[in-house]
Specification:
By secondary structure, the chain is mainly β. A six-stranded mixed β-sheet has the order 2-10-9-4-5-6, with no helix packed on it. The protein has a four-stranded antiparallel β-sheet with strand order 1-3-8-7, with no helix packed on it. Strand 4 and strand 5 form a beta hairpin. It starts with a strand and ends with a strand.
Length: about 110
């Protein structure tokens, strides 16, 4: 049974940083493209960043230059380093494949507010 567990969210002020973690169990993600998605309050879920099994990355324009996705295949984990956070980054963040093919976890809430 595949399970994704996200962590690392919290309340931060604009300009601050956070590092999100995603631990996968029930499958080996080494050969799978993975991604971070987010769902802002009252809005639909959107793809934020993706990383292929080979380490190539892609980002939504809204986070390019501020967010960095990475993976540790030995630990079966995916990370999202978020810098220069803005209020519009406020959302629940989820990891999954880029197409959302795996069961969704509970997500981790990020709130950016002064």
């Amino acid at each position: 049974q595949v399970q994704l567990v996200e962590s690392g969210g919290g309340l931060v002020q604009p300009g601050e940083s956070l590092r999100l973690s995603c631990a996968a169990s029930g499958m080996i993600i080494r050969l799978t493209s993975m991604a971070w998605h987010r769902q802002p309050p009252g809005k639909q879920r959107e793809l934020v960043a993706a990383i292929t099994s080979g380490g190539s990355t892609n980002y939504a324009d809204s986070v390019k230059g501020r967010f960095t996705i990475s993976r540790d295949n030995a630990k079966n984990m995916v990370f999202l380093e978020m810098n220069s956070l803005k209020p519009e980054d406020t959302a629940v963040y989820y990891c999954n494949t880029p197409t959302g093919a795996l069961p969704w976890g509970q997500g981790t809430r990020v709130t950016v507010s002064s």
